[in-house]
Design goal:
- This protein has 203 residues and is of the alpha+beta class.
- Helices cover 57% and strands 12% of the residues.
- Helix 4 packs antiparallel against helix 5.
- The longest helix has 30 residues.
- The N terminus is likely disordered.
Length: 203
Amino acid sequence: MKFKIILLSILLSSCGRGETPYSQTRDYLSFERQLYITPGEGGGYCAYNRDRSGEVTLITERGALSADQLGQSLSFMSHWSQAVSAGLLVAAHINAILNRARNRPWLWVRIGGLALWGSAGAVNGLYRIIKGNYEGEKGDAIAAQFFSSWLPPANFIVEEIQRRGRLESLANKHVRVSISRRKMNRIIAKLSKKKPAFPDACP
């Protein structure tokens, strides 16, 4: 909650209501377009797209989004995807514990457990590499997700850190972050599909 208040304060201080319908926030840039975020009328945040010709288009036509919805749109993976993929490793650990409890031979338990754990970790990490490349993520973001995928609690922490960092960059008018065309298209698609927390709040 504290983070949302800080984020809102930054956005309100950097975006004037009486100015042009987009702020000076140009955090997410691709080859052809820029993403702008401004406070909505009555709450939330509105997203605009500005192409190279200077034309500005409202992305959140149905209304303003909450800070959580913005974070979801800027995410690497959804929390559901994180939970499912992490569940593979958790299942491998549980299997090893159950086998040990059944008095199975220790060497067999260790070999079988390591094989299952390695397979689950490889699938988990490979999924993040494929997803990251498909969405146009940068190498450092993919690497952070890959290495954290081997430790189930850590992958949620890394996801939250990435979301928070992207939101903070988006709220900072002095920061510009270049992203791929594919990532920009996917962010805009996610923003436009969100059910607004504040309907009809975007001019």
